[in-house]
């Protein structure tokens, strides 16, 4: 599984970084980015939670 954040959609709320800090971080521009790909098995559930709960749907996960 790979994680991606669409910076054109992200509002920088930080939900993903608090839900899955091993994968998502806020960058200097205040928007989130996925830093670890592929997502390790141990982080896949929390990455999915971040994707499912992103208020603007900026996160995508692919297999």
What would you report as the Rg, rounded to the nearest angstrom? 10 Å
Secondary-structure element pattern, one letter each: EHEEHE
CATH structural architecture: 2-Layer Sandwich
Cα end-to-end separation: 4 Å
Strand neighbour order, sheet with most strands? 1-4
- The tally of domains stands at 1
Strand content: 15-25%
* Bulk shape: globular
Helix content: 10-25%
Structural class: alpha+beta
How many E strands? 4
Determine the number of helices (DSSP H or I, runs of at least 4 residues). Answer: 2
Can you tell me the residue ranges where pLDDT is under 50 for at least 5 consecutive residues?
Answer: none
Explain how this protein is built.
It is a single chain. The protein has 63 residues and is an alpha+beta fold. Helices cover 24% and strands 22% of the residues. The longest helix is centred in the C-terminal third of the chain and has 10 residues, at 44-53. The model has no long low-confidence stretch (mean pLDDT 97).
């Amino acid at each position: 599984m790979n994680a991606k954040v669409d910076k054109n959609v992200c509002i920088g709320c930080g939900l993903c970084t608090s839900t899955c800090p091993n994968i998502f971080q806020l960058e200097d521009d205040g928007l989130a980015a996925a830093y670890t790909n592929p997502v390790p098995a141990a982080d896949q559930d929390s990455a999915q939670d971040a994707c499912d709960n992103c208020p603007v749907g900026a996160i995508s996960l692919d297999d």
